[in-house]
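Objective 1.3, modelling of assemblies. Example input:
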Amino acid sequence: MAEAAQMQVSDEVAVQIENMNKWYGTFHVLRDIDLTVYRGERIVIAGPSGSGKSTLIRCINALEEHQKGRITVDGTLLSSDLKNIDKIRSEVGMVFQHFNLFPHLTILENCTLAPIWVRKTPKREAEETAMHFLEKVKIPEQADKYPGQLSGGQQQRVAIARSLCMRPRIMLFDEPTSALDPEMIKEVLDTMVELAEEGMTMLCVTHEMGFAQAVANRVIFMDAGQIVEQNEPKEFFNNPKHERTKLFLSQILGH
Amino acid sequence: MAEAAQMQVSDEVAVQIENMNKWYGTFHVLRDIDLTVYRGERIVIAGPSGSGKSTLIRCINALEEHQKGRITVDGTLLSSDLKNIDKIRSEVGMVFQHFNLFPHLTILENCTLAPIWVRKTPKREAEETAMHFLEKVKIPEQADKYPGQLSGGQQQRVAIARSLCMRPRIMLFDEPTSALDPEMIKEVLDTMVELAEEGMTMLCVTHEMGFAQAVANRVIFMDAGQIVEQNEPKEFFNNPKHERTKLFLSQILGH
Amino acid sequence: ATLDDVKARGVLNCGVTTGLVGFAAPDANGEWNGFDVGVCRAVAAAVLGDPTAVEFVPTTGKTRFTALSSGEIDLLARNTTWTFSRDVDLKFEFVGVNYYDGQGFMVPKALGVSSAKELSGATVCIQTGTTTELNLADYFRKNNMDYQPVPIETNAEAQQQYLAGACDVYTTDASGLAATRAAFENPGDHVVLPEIISKEPLGPLVRHGDNDWGDIARWTLNALIAAEEYGITSANAEEMAQGTDSPEINRILGTEGNLGEMLGLDADWAKRAILAGGNYGELFEKNIGENTPIGLSRGLNAQWTDGGLLYSPPFR
Amino acid sequence: MTTLSDPPRESFRLSMLINDTRYRAYTFQFIALMLVLALFAYLGSNLVANLRAAGLNISYEFLGESSNYDINQTLIDYTSQSSHLRASIVGVLNTLLVAFLACVTATIIGVIAGVARLSPNWLVRKLMAGYVEAFRNVPVLIWIIIIFTIMTAVLPAPSAFRGEDPDASMLFGAVAFTNRGLYLPAPIWGPGSLVVVLVFIASIVGVFAYRRYATKLLYDTGKLLPMGWPSLAIFILPTLLVYFLLGRPITLEYPELAGFNFQGGTQILGSLIALWWALAIYTGAFIAENVRAGIQAVSKGQTEAAASLGLRPKRIMNLVVLPQALRVIIPPLISNYLNITKNSSLAIAVGYMDVTGTLGGITLNQTGRAIEAILLLMLFYLLISLAISALMNVYNNAMRLKER
Amino acid sequence: MSDTHQQSIGYVRDSMLPQATPPASETGAVKWVRQNLFLNIPNSILTLVAIFVLYKLLAGFLPWFLNGVWDAPSIRACREVLDGDAGGCFAVLTERWNQLLFGFKYPSELYWRPTLAFVLLFVAIAPVLFRKVFPAQMLIFTALYPFIAYFLIWGGSILIPIFALLGFVAGYLVYSRFVTQSFAMGFFGGIVAAFVFWWITGLLPIEGILALEPVASRDMGGFMLNLILGTVCVSLSIPFGIALALGRQSDMPIIKWICVVFIEFIRGVPLITLLFVANVVLAYFLPPGTNFDLILRVIIMITMFASAYIAEVIRGGLAALPRGQYEGAESLGLDYAQSMRLIILPQALKISIPGIVNVAVGLFKDTTLVSVISMFDLVGMIRGPILASTEWNGVYWELLGFAALLFFVVCYGISQYSQWLERQLQTDHR
Ligand SMILES: Nc1ncnc2c1ncn2[C@@H]1O[C@H](COP(=O)(O)OP(=O)(O)OP(=O)(O)O)[C@@H](O)[C@H]1O
Ligand SMILES: Nc1ncnc2c1ncn2[C@@H]1O[C@H](COP(=O)(O)OP(=O)(O)OP(=O)(O)O)[C@@H](O)[C@H]1O
Ligand SMILES: [Mg+2]
Ligand SMILES: [Mg+2]
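Predicted structure (tokens):
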């Protein structure tokens, strides 16, 4: 499968991060990050807790601002200009660890909200799109329920559908399965694999090494705010180079 | 290990329950309970939710009053006489599912409170005892922290140490591990096993069948307020007799 | 200017007390009646031609001055004592005196007190927000007596306190005492002591600076007083307006001269004011005179010709 | 990879004021600031225009002038010759006095009622629920008036104590409840009374010292001394002993009916009592709810855990439940104190001369300085509430439970 | 290993026991009385004390209430009828009920209008309070209600409320036309549109068209005044409260500080000083010549007062929302206004409703303070005209009791509702 996926990677650059640095107060969270993501690429980001994985991903989406360096998403430079930020956010979908569905809206409304208000899609059309993606994540029948009535796995799939409804060109996942019970993890991973097979550009923070091996084009290992090692999954898992990586893999696989 | 433990059981009766009945309003929670616990015995009580396990244990400690029958703890008859209740309570330690540590006191203060005020132990001495037991549960270094600063597993171990500081002759555990994350369960079970090995009389409500098999002298299975079956762990697990037990075991082990 | 505002509004906003029987109080139907109310109605009749075109704004001792200076009311007719500082410092203009009063004391007969000099050690109910508490402080200090003041916001509550015996003495303007006593179940059980400890010329006032409006209020009041002097009453005013042989009466009633025009009103202004509730004497008799429950005698408030202080400047 | 560089410094464009996150916040804040300034400028210019039109000005000189009125309750020296400023201070002290008394009383009432609401006794529970609901759901002004009415209309006037066969009589011949207030005996400090007072103070210190010692003894040796009756004995006995040894240096002056009023003794004004108790009972109902919520917030597990350790109910309350409940109770308790202080401004309804009655009442009336007086009045209340909030923050920070 | 009990260890129950009935001491009235009244000696004493207190209360109250005189022209007549017996003089209520409820100036032939408005209030407020019970369409009536109520209570031409309503409609139309593009544009466009509409229609001569007899604000009084002040101020203060709460949450320091200063200032001073301001000082701050009604000034002040308190409640609601909701909205590309309006506020307000209701109860009680600045609300009517009148001087208990009862019924009702709602929110797993 990994082979099949590989093929869809094109030469176009989806995300380009150059020499990016970020501080929280005086704490240097991200240091000199350089990363180029090509269109269709599927990248898994791994690393110990607190290594800055989430922060990296959130910078791409301008949920956090970086203090130095450049981030270019789909040709748009991420600057403090609101227009650019808006543009980028509508190109980039994000799925959170805790789903962050809107509990006061039905599933359908969750999915149509942004298309209607941000993309100015007519409501009917937005609903059709939403149903399409809900079918894709296999829960069209839940459309009129409220998030609180769904299981965690279903909620996460709704969150994915909600992002997809904006027809993003890039999807970011921040530990999408780590708040789920084991049975539900599979549901969500299946959905993500399916997305991957369709050639979506994905950046995914996860500890699901199975998923990484099956889907990723590239695994990035971070520690202490830096990219320590990156490689194809096979190489990465079987033949890690850096000491830190070896240690991490031994822990995570042993677990 | 089970064999080794077996040996410490003596002939002395620690708890004797005769024909005990309890009602909540008109609801008959415990029906004709007869149970004799010998000194040094380690009893695991299992059963479906709502079967009255907690209530049984709490009756022994006079946290709930029973309406019919007799409970004798360590030779003292449990009556409405406050003196007897006090006597019994200081003989019997109890560990709750939700730890119930006192959040406004440090760990050390949690452990010395009762010895000082109930046993009238001088403070210094009480603190020495407390440190002794905190070492036993392997967290002496946390003595000056507050409960809110510890992990669940650590808190539960403090709760055990707190009970031990009263040097009880009998320990009651009410699902001590069910509010814990999997990693922490082991910490607590280890502590309990250690206690068991020292010959403490224990009654333990738990669904940890591994623990039961390893440590218990006897497993008691309750349903609908009655003791349905009891046996040595080996027999109980391999060769349950009652239909209800079989059903329960199939569920719990299949899980 | 105030005159134009009032005309444009069609209603005169007149500040009165929150309720003092005889001077200004709403009856069971919510209709305002009283001596001060009469002044308001006279001004309204003079300016607007309609004695009912008045909006009565109840004010407390605290709010009355701001109400006036902020323009919420056009005229304050709320037994307000004319003092130097109010006239000069607070920037108001008193347009005359409609009642010469003085502060007095009322005590239950049962106490057996016959003079204010015997009040040492008494508990005294005062209505706050008036000059009364200053007079009281001065009087007791001057006479070297001590007392305990019980300050109260409204007349109604002062009355309650006094009747319940929470204070021995009630002090306020003598007219107010009479009015209050009149409302008692047994007025005979209470006496008003003979001492009058202060001068309290009560009169309507307007804002400083709008002299035209002040003139209207002043001369409406004077017209009422002069009308009594010359015998113009609400009963005979119409008849007299046909013309009399007294030039002064003619000038008042507008059949001679152009006094109304000078004021910026029409010729009939004073006639209407008199017709609104009668001349000064009529208003007095109807609201607070001897035949009313309040039963005040004219005393100082008689015409100068009868030995009183009422003395309207000439209309010419 | 690529040459690194910061995002290029774009030249500033006007549209960036709205579109650029860096500048947008400044734009908004600037607009807001301008709006607020404009509003103030507008109000200020109106004020100036209005004052000029009325020929008035803003000046605080009136504070120095003599007030010319008397106040019936003065905690500091005051005569009608004192200044308005002093009259205001008298009012401030009266406010603080009634607020303090009401806070203490409300706390006592509230704690008793709150605990009683959790009593196992059904009748007591219901009775207290009735009290709480009745007082919480009726405006405090109505309660103040009702209690004031009880004071004036129900209690006898001093004159009722007069005569051969009076309608009312004094309690123990020493205390008179009248509708002007409460007349109590006042102590006369004879020679040696200082000693008695000192001994009394010393014995209060003694009580604390004893309790401290008892705890220490328990900690050190495990010996638990009784707390209740020794404390009481230390509290009372030495003072009594010294009092009688010195030949009763402190005597009481009893109030006696003379002239219009009771003379001698001390008087607590009726209006003070009415306001004090109205505020106390009203706020007590709120405090009762806080206390109940606070105790209930301590989970049942805490009590059970303590009980299973063998602690007695009284100790469970003192050692486990109360310390935890207090954290929940005290913050709303403090804001209730603040409410009492603010509600004490309703004193004018009963003629109690608090600061609203002096500065915001008679002074305002006599001088006509409405703006100045009300401004000062608000400032005073604001200072109090800021002080109390500061106190609350200190408490909250000190008591915050340590968490991970 | 000791064999004594090792044999007995195996045990299997052969027949299951049925539910048995508890012993008599565990059920029925006996147990209840013992448990609830006479658990132990101190408790029994308490019970006796409580019974004594109850007896005293009832012994004082019942004869007074049952013997009450309901029909007499004055207190003296009452006393004659009672002839020395204990008994209330409730005649004052039957004689003056209209003044107590409507003040002394509201024309009596028009009482049906505020009464109708009051009844309709329940219809209007029901769908807000019980969202699950009533159809959402009823909210349309809620939106219309302010205009209907204004028309009923104040009278005048029906065109005034209609134009006012149409102004809002015009504003809304413009708003919804532009809001999808930019919130600011929609919002300010809407406001401008509404004002333009009002300005134009304000020029029309509409006096007397389809008019009810107009009643001036000054003529409002009695309990009606309390209700008007309460409902108007609470409803007006909610939008201001939201704005203040958002401002206080803002990370722009100047805006935050403006809001903080306002809120803390208002919360730091007693309402009565604010009422003094309305009564005595506010006029100086308005342009020369403007002349607000006292009632209007009071409404402004009470609204400011309530806004500050409601802002604090809503701030609590906002703080209770998890950070993820903000981030979720942001990551979808919603801007600040959109995420507030669509995501944050609907949730925050829902959490805040019980708190808002509590503020409303407190505020409603505080409306009695207007009696201190010589407005004739229920308390003002009692303390002023009625108790001062010759006929009724001295009937304290009946009047004050009546006032207390009216407030109790309303406030108790509302606070029970808020408690119910809190329970609903707790169990609401949505
Ligand atoms: N808002 C913040 N303010 C200050 N420090 C922060 C903030 N958010 C995160 N950090 C710190 O930044 C570092 C990186 O955080 P980040 O959440 O990116 O780690 P992560 O690799 O995603 O870890 P995890 O696997 O636990 O999610 C951590 O040390 C964290 O404590
Ligand atoms: N205070 C109470 N009042 C009324 N009924 C109660 C009370 N406490 C428990 N019960 C009921 O008594 C029964 C037995 O409860 P108990 O807590 O002993 O069950 P359990 O076997 O410990 O179940 P679990 O495994 O869920 O803890 C249950 O049906 C429960 O609903
Ligand atoms: Mg992370
Ligand atoms: Mg249980």
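Confidence is low (pLDDT under 50) at residues 1-7 of chain D.
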